[in-house]
């Protein structure tokens, strides 16, 4: 009995009238935990009952404490008939199980009924007494902290980052059980809510156990998702990053502020950047040398081939070139497997078997030694890192796989279901194993892509699914990266013993851009130049990532939201045929989305994308693709060369005129955008100096030259002369449409900015105005023979209009920025497109926007040469994986940028052009390639391709030197020209809001609230609600229904946070919003899943040390001030 | 192709004051959009009609959801559904309970019953206030009346506390409730020139001086017999008013009173002759009003009587407002000098109110 749970029901208010005769209610309460139920007395004839009950005590296992919610049911007593339920409150008591989180739950909770919504409130007190249990074999994992935040939570320091944890649990969906036919919708909904609550609890507990086994005490970047697979069940899965976190005591915090002031810092070049993570204390404390014991991270198989940290060689380059020889626990997977990814299905099959077996073995093994998990996948769900953690970012890696959710109806099996996937292996897998195996495949895929990029880790990693009927697309993506292993070790931080791993240390403001792969043996063709910032290492011309912009990165101008949107019609089909059709479409979609992104990026004269998230949603008759990212001009990367339009048939005068017009429009737009986003990179004079300009390499050999895809790609490889312009070719009306659509993106109105990352690059002085919002739109297509083009336009307009209406609604907040704009699309029914957005609008002080926090840009040795070698983006695919074609299972994995897709899409041709440094507008000859024949080949190829993989690679160069920890207390985020400014500035005006009153709960999808600092994390909020109505019209139609439901969800989240003693939710997100409607029957049902971290934050005081006030994020490091209650 | 669903929900509920006013004024969504477009918001914010429509619908929905809470404003402060900053809550409530003077003038003194509610469309047509808005205002009156009817204590304070209204608005509601409760006639043609604010002022005077509550906290033994409320006029006081009749029935007293007043007025006003000539009529008018107030019917006619018996004669004699002031002051004060007149307290309580009411009502 390791725990005693105590609950007390105090009072109710605003109860609904349950007795029409008296207009009053005779309410009482049932309190249930596990199988134990207590009741309060009936409080007669009142809408504001005062029960003031005794303490109800439940003696339970801590395992149950973790899994079960406390269930409170309010009922109306009825002498003659059955008591009527008024509503319920589920309270997750997990936050009470961790000593550092909340100690008591006390407050008013909305009483929620799945049919009627919120019906009054109830005041409840909950406490837990835990007894210590040192049982080794315990099944509970009390005390492990969970954070949704994808960075090291403020007010903690990461003593060690252990790595990837994942788990999934499966159950039957109560909605599809036979009993559902005879029970009320309310009972069914409640069964579902309760089940999901239980499953989430169980999942969290299991992940906690893994973390404990790894020696960690927390999960950061915890991402939990539901897959409502319908008939085949309900999957709850989660991933996260296991860490050992140390709480910063208030005493130690101030000391962390004693960084050397930027101005006094020597060699101010590198690093004065405010860490927006507020975790610099960690790294500010220098810890012993890197010669610690091996850590989980170091033990990573992928890094095993890289030399130890002290090696003076350039391991990453080597690594990429020698990746074939990498030791890996799963040698048969990864890029190496691409070699056999030919058309021959036989080898593929074998390969997959091996791969899956390996995976299964590991899984089996992992039950005894969970550490393996981390070894398997060097993935990190974090998107922003302690300074120095991220050495290089290679580029986005992604993988998708199409699966059939196929359930064997076998009454004899009862609840157990077997999936045919593993039949060939004669393994009778039950469901979770199947799902595990699916994800395992994808993760292997990702891992191998990363390796191909010369990277040993994947950061900003996330997974998602899209389900339509029995087809399920699994997706995973992340950013291949090289991390500094020192941060993986216990007590890892030593600036003292400089790592000589790299000849030249790279400044943090550009180091992450440097290519991680070997320039002589690049995994794919790319154009490299010397870094425009440090001039020492090579950088690619464009960098795509899924992470947040590192706070210390050098940026020119402001960033902006860039979205690529795409609709593809698909024939309605069933089963395997359907799955095949979808997996055939995927690469084309990915390619097109990528092309759009690239064009839009160029149109804004930017050269990097952060927070890239590509979502592909499947519906019965169409696929929707939406890619969102934040475009930025990284000072370290070469300038974009603009966009050049080329006609297919030169000589046609009218046509040429037309092209000129378009070209002019494009040039105008670019010029306008430059002004809008203040992109005015320093003119680089052609100084002949320093580093030699490497010969531009024509890479005909792709990373996996033996793979079919790369063969094709090399044919594709258009080696035109070096141009720095990006060429668009117009050869038909479609292409014209595309270009038009490119130009129709309207910039946000004056005073508005938007981005999908945590904060807007180029804006530093946030003020206190915060408005989090959720918006949902559903669009009904009037069927009439729609074309892909028509659909695209509708979809694009839908997204654009949505943004416009945000700008309009929030106009009173100007100047403001929409941050963390998270857009999800779905096809809930045929002819319906649903777009859901959660974002936060934050105000900033316009007057100060021009001032950078503090910057010093390194004066690059003038002795270094400036060179601009621009290579066009090159795409490369490796079909590293295999096709599975067993029984009824189809699985295909597609990753970004398939060459195949490129081949087939011939309206837009990306032409490789190399930069001629002095003139940016050199007209380039577009060499177009006739892809016609290619397309044919491709399509056959595609048909066979079941698992495809590719990767966008972007270069980066290593940084070995860790930034001085002190350095980042001042921002190096710089805007405009990289001239040293010589003074450090407070980022934010000190006018901060005083918003932390007892009742006000702020919510934000970001990990911080401007103007405040978080002093305590109270626990994770993870709530799932179902709402149903049979009087849709009366509730104001489907809009009215959803509007009140979302408002109710917000209210319940706020109430829980307030009851925990918190005043804000950070890293809030709406994971799921599934709406089903049937207006004819006057019915609708909606499911919403939200999560976030409950916190206490206090106003930042004015007298804080400068260094801590230089950045929003740094809140936790300053002294205490009273505040929130 | 159509937007099937379109919602926007902020953690802090977003409310545009302009749209709120349009909603309160009973505009349909489409009309509201038109009004907003005419206001130039499109150009100002570089946006489109679709966006405006979407925003307007959204706001209307929010207001509809809030309306339930606005019916008992105290709930707005501790409900959990909408997070609205306190100052915004105050604005929402104040605006919701605000009313059109034109509308209230029509229903002032009428019984707040279903019957009256049925007449709202006529009133709507007459006042050009939309029917929807009329209904809201009417329901507000009814709601306030229903709550305060059963409460003891000062009327204005009760309204202020239960509906969280500003002092000014609470006073106006007190007037409306008071008028509705006593059914004062305000609709006659002769009273048309009076505005709601004139009546509200008079109501304030009556509430403060002629009700039970006006005398102050009643002593214990009184509580059983007299309910401490200021929705109703003080019955005992009304009875006592009958005693004032002596001022007109006793010929000596009347003459004495007249001579005292005339002495005081002589040479101070151009209208002296008219005052002297009309004194007896005017005095009879005022005292008769006082004497009849025990009849509910006559209470209802209080204002019309004031106008007919006093204001109109004076106006036809072209008294100025200053004349009126002068006359009434001396008229009131002179009564104190009359040796045989023993009802000074009642006289003051009566004339104090009459004086201020007439001052307020004496205009074009």
UniProtKB/TrEMBL annotation, chain B:
GO terms for molecular function: fibroblast growth factor binding. One of its GO terms (biological process) is platelet aggregation. Pfam families: FIBP. One of its GO terms (cellular component) is nucleus. InterPro entries: FIBP (IPR008614). It comes from Sphaeramia orbicularis. The lineage of its organism: Eukaryota, Metazoa, Chordata, Craniata, Vertebrata. This is Fibroblast growth factor (acidic) intracellular binding protein a.
């Amino acid at each position: 009995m390791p725990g005693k749970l105590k609950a007390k029901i105090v009072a109710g208010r605003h109860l609904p009238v349950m007795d029409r005769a008296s207009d009053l209610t005779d309410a009482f309460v049932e309190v249930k935990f596990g199988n134990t139920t207590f009741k309060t007395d009936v409080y007669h004839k009142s809408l504001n009952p005062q029960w003031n009950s005794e303490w109800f005590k439940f003696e339970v296992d801590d395992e149950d404490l973790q899994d079960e919610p406390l269930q409170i049911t309010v009922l109306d007593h009825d002498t003659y008939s059955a008591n009527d339920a008024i509503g319920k409150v589920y309270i997750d008591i997990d936050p009470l199980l961790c000593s550092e989180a909340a100690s008591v739950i006390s407050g008013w909770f909305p009483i929620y009924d799945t049919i009627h919504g919120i019906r009054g409130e109830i005041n409840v007190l909950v406490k837990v007494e835990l007894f210590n249990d040192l049982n080794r074999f315990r099944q509970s994992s009390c005390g492990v902290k969970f954070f949704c935040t994808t960075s090291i939570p403020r007010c903690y320091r990461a003593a060690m980052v252990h790595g990837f944890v994942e788990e999934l649990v499966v159950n039957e969906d109560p909605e599809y059980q036979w009993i559902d036919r005879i029970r009320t919708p309310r009972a069914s909904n409640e069964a579902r809510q309760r089940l999901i609550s239980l499953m989430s609890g169980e999942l969290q507990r299991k992940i906690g156990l893994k973390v404990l086994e790894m020696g960690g005490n927390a999960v950061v970047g915890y991402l939990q998702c539901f897959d409502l697979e319908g008939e085949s069940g309900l999957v709850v899965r989660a991933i996260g990053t296991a860490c050992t976190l140390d709480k910063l005591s208030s005493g130690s915090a101030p000391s962390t502020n004693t960084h050397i002031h930027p101005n006094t810092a020597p060699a101010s070049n590198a690093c004065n950047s405010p860490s927006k993570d507020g975790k610099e204390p960690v790294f500010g404390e220098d810890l012993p040398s890197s010669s610690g014991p091996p850590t989980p991270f170091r033990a990573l198989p992928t890094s095993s081939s890289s030399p130890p940290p002290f090696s003076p060689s350039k391991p990453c380059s080597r690594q990429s070139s020698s990746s074939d020889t990498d030791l890996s626990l799963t040698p048969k997977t990864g890029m190496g497997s691409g070699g056999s990814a030919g058309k021959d299905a036989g080898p593929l099959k074998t390969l997959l078997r091996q791969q899956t077996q390996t995976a299964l073995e590991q899984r089996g093994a992992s039950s005894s030694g969970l550490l393996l998990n981390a070894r398997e996948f060097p993935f990190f769900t974090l998107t922003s890192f302690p300074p120095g953690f991220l050495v290089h970012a290679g580029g986005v890696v992604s993988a998708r796989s199409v699966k059939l959710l196929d359930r064997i109806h076998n009454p004899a099996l009862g609840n157990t279901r077997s999936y045919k996937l593993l039949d060939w292996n004669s393994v009778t897998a039950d469901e979770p194993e199947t799902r595990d195996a699916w994800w395992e495949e994808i993760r292997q895929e990702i891992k191998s892509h990363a390796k191909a990029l010369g990277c040993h880790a994947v950061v900003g990693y996330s997974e998602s699914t899209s389900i339509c009927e029995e087809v399920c697309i699994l997706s995973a993506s992340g950013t291949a990266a090289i991390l500094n292993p020192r941060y993986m070790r216990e007590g890892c931080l030593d600036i003292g013993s400089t790592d000589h791993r790299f000849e030249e240390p790279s400044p943090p403001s550009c180091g992450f851009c440097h290519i991680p792969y070997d320039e002589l043996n690049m995994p794919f063709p790319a154009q490299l130049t010397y870094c425009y910032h440090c001039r020492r290492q090579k950088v690619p011309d464009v960098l795509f990532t899924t992470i947040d912009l590192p706070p210390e990165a050098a940026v020119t101008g402001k960033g902006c939201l860039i979205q690529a949107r795409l609709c593809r019609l698909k024939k309605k089909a069933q089963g395997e045929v359907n799955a095949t059709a979808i997996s055939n479409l995927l690469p084309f979609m990915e390619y097109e989305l990528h092309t759009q992104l690239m064009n839009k990026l160029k149109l804004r004269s930017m050269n990097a994308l952060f927070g890239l998230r590509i979502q592909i949603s499947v519906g019965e008759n169409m696929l929707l693709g939406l890619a969102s990212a934040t475009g930025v001009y990284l000072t370290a990367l070469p300038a974009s060369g603009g966009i050049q339009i080329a006609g297919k048939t030169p000589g046609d005068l009218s046509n040429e005129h037309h092209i000129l017009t378009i070209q002019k429009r494009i040039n105008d737009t670019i010029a306008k955008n430059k002004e809008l986003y203040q992109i005015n990179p320093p003119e680089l004079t052609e100084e002949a100096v320093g580093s030699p300009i490497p010969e531009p390499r024509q890479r005909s050999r792709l990373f996996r030259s033996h793979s079919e895809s790369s063969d094709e790609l090399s044919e594709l490889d258009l080696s035109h002369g070096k141009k720095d312009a990006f060429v668009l070719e117009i050869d038909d009306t479609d292409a014209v449409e595309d270009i038009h659509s490119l130009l129709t993106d309207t910039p946000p109105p004056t005073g508005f900015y938007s981005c999908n990352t945590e904060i807007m690059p180029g804006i530093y002085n946030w003020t206190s105005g915060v408005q989090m919002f959720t918006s949902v739109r559903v669009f009904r297509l009037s069927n009439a023979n729609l074309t892909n083009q028509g659909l695209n336009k509708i979809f694009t307009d839908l997204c654009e209009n949505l943004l416009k209406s945000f700008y309009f609604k929030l106009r009173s907040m100007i100047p403001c920025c929409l941050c963390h704009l998270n857009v999800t699309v779905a096809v809930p029914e045929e002819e319906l497109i649903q777009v859901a957005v959660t974002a936060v609008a934050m105000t900033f002080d316009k007057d100060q926007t021009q001032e950078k926090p503090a910057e010093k840009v390194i004066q690059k040795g003038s002795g270094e040469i400036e060179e601009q070698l621009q290579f066009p983006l090159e795409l490369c695919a490796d079909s590293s994986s295999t096709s599975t074609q067993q029984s009824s299972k189809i699985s295909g994995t597609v990753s970004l940028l398939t060459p195949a897709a490129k081949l087939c899409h011939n309206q837009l041709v990306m032409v490789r052009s190399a930069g001629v440094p002095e003139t940016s507008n050199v007209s380039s000859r577009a060499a177009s390639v006739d892809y016609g024949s290619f397309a044919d080949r491709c399509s056959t190829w595609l048909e066979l391709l079941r698992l495809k993989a590719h990767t966008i690679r972007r270069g980066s160069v290593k940084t070995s030197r860790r930034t001085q920890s002190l350095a980042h207390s001042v921002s190096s985020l710089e805007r405009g020209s990289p001239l040293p400014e010589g003074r450090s500035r407070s980022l934010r005006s000190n006018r901060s809001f005083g918003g932390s009153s007892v009742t006000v709960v702020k919510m934000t999808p970001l990990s911080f609230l401007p103007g405040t600092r978080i002093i305590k994390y109270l626990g994770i909020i993870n709530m799932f609600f179902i709402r149903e109505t049979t009087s849709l019209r009366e509730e104001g139609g489907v809009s009215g229904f959803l509007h009140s439901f979302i408002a109710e969800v917000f209210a319940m989240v706020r109430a829980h946070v307030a009851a925990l003693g918190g005043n804000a939710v950070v890293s809030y997100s709406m994971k799921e919003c599934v709406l089903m409607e049937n207006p004819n029957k006057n019915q609708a049902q909606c499911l919403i899943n939200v999560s976030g971290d409950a916190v206490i934050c206090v106003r930042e005081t004015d007298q804080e040390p400068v260094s801590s006030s230089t950045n929003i994020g740094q809140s936790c490091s300053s002294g205490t001030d009273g505040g929130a209650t | 192709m159509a937007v099937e669903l379109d919602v926007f929900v902020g953690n802090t509920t977003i409310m545009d004051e302009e749209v709120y006013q349009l909603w309160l004024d009973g505009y349909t969504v489409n009309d509201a959009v038109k009004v907003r477009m005419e206001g130039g918001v499109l150009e100002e914010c570089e946006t489109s009609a679709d966006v405006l429509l979407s925003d307007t619908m959204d706001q209307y929905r929010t207001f509809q959801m809030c309306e339930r809470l606005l019916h008992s404003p105290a709930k707005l402060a501790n409900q959990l559904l909408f997070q609205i900053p306190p100052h915004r809550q105050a604005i929402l409530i104040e605006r919701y309970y605000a009313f059109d003077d034109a509308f209230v003038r029509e229903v002032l003194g009428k019984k707040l019953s279903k019957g009256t509610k049925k007449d709202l469309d006529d009133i709507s047509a007459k006042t050009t206030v939309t029917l929807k808005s009329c209904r809201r205002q009417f329901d507000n009156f009814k709601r306030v009346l229903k709550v305060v009817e059963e409460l003891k204590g000062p009327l204005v304070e009760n309204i202020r506390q239960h509906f969280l209204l500003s002092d000014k608005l609470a006073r106006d509601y007190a007037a409306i409730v008071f008028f509705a409760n006593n059914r004062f006639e305000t609709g006659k043609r002769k009273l048309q020139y009076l505005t709601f604010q004139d009546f509200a002022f008079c109501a304030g005077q009556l509430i403060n001086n002629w009700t039970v509550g006006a005398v102050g906290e009643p002593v214990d033994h009184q509580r059983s017999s007299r309910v401490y409320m200021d929705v109703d006029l003080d019955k005992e006081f009304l009875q006592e008013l009958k005693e004032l009749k002596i001022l007109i029935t006793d010929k000596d007293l009347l003459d004495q009173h007249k001579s005292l007043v005339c002495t005081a007025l002589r040479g101070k006003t151009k209208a002296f002759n008219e005052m002297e000539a009309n004194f007896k009529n005017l005095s009879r008018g005022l005292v008769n009003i006082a004497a009849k107030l025990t009849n509910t019917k006559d209470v209802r006619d209080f204002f019309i009587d004031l106008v007919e018996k006093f204001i109109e004669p004076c106006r036809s004699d072209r008294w100025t407002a200053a004349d009126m002031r002068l006359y009434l002051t001396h008229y009131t004060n002179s009564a104190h000098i009359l040796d045989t007149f023993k009802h000074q307290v009642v006289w003051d309580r009566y004339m104090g109110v009459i004086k201020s009411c007439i001052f307020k009502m004496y205009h074009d």
